[in-house]
Every structure is written in C-alpha cells, then in structure tokens.
Amino acid sequence: MYIIPSEISDILLIQPQVFADNRGFFFESYNHQKFTDKTGITVNFVQDNHSLSQQNVLRGLHYQIIKPQGKLVRVIVGKIFDVAVDIRKSSPTFGRWVGYELSAENKLHLWIPPGFAHGFLVLSSVAEVLYKTTDYYEPKGDRTILWNDPDIGIIWPGTDTPTLSGKDQEGKRFKDAEVFT
To answer: Is 100 known to be catalytic?
Structure first.
C-alpha cells in the first residue's frame, strides 16, 4: 500500500499493492493494520455502501452533520471523478476541494475524513462504487451542498448538465450550508 498526499493534508489517495499475472490480479482492498500503520489514522469502519450509477450521474455533495462519516472510497467497475470539499470552518483549507479520477483500472482508494462533503461524477458508461464509513447513516443529519456552487468552484470534467437526484438538485449553497466548527 502506498500513500499519496493530496493538496488538502487530511485527504489521502491510497494505491494498493497489486499482484498481477496472466490469470488476473489480486490485492488487499482493505487491511486494518496496514491502513493504520501507513496512514496513522485509527478508525473503525462500521458500514459498507455500494452504488451503481449510469454515465453522467452526479451524486453529492453529501455529508452528515450528525454522526459525521469518514469514507474510504473505491471503484470496482468503471470510472468516476471523486470530490471532497473541506467544510470545517476552523480548517486552513475551509471551502477548498480536491478531485481525483478513481477507476476499476487504477484501483486507487480515496480517504475522506469526517468534516468533508463528498460527491462523484460517473465518467464511464456505468460505475460501481464501494465505500466504507466510520459511522452509520443518520437521516436527521443528512445534508447536501449544491454540486455546482460558484463559491466552491468545482471543475467537473465533461459536463454542465449531469443527471441529479431530487435531493441533489435541492442542495444548499455553500454560504447557507450547515458546516463543522
């Protein structure tokens, strides 16, 4: 496992060690001891989520103000542009975002700690995304920031008109969103 720091120090790209030969490949998608040793992050993942989305679907920007979740995200089919936005008011990177292409081919994982809004855009014909969370889903704490908020300025690749859920269409502007202290 290799750790690749991002422009926001708490966000990490994780590249697993892949063993490939003429039969295919093998890698540990998660090993708690190695994750802790390599990152210095001690977390307990309590829930695994799996989504299937069509090309041009954008999910996000989601977060939980109650029971904030850290997420370890990876793609098992297809390709996405994965984004994390720092919504911790006390952070020097408050309001900044990072985005990375995650795919079944590159096998990269993205660690997003609590205190960030998260979203992704599907770049391939379909994508299956798996992510582990550090806390359970709490509907009362569920919040959404508008995917194209000009104050954040995310540069989403390839589209100005993604397919959105009703919830994501109604996302709040960043300046009006409930954020972390």
So the answer is: no
Q: What is the pTM of this model?
A: 0.95
> What angle (nearest 5°) sits at the alpha carbon of residue 133, between those of residues 40 and 37?
15
**CB-based contacts of 24, cutoff 8 Å, min separation 6:** none
Which of 30, 50, 131, 137 is the catalytic position?
A: 131
Catalytically annotated residue among 2, 32, 62, 100: 62
Q: What are 58-90's pLDDT values in tens digits?
A: 999 999 999 999 999 999 999 999 999 999 999
Give the chain's domains with CATH numbers. Answer: 46-176 (2.60.120.10)
Looking up tokens 């979203």, which residue turns up?
119
Specify whether the CB–CB gap between 89 and 111 falls below 8 A. no
* H or E element, residue 101: strand 97-103
- Please check whether residue 63 is in contact with residue 116, taking contact to mean a CB–CB distance below 8 angstroms: yes
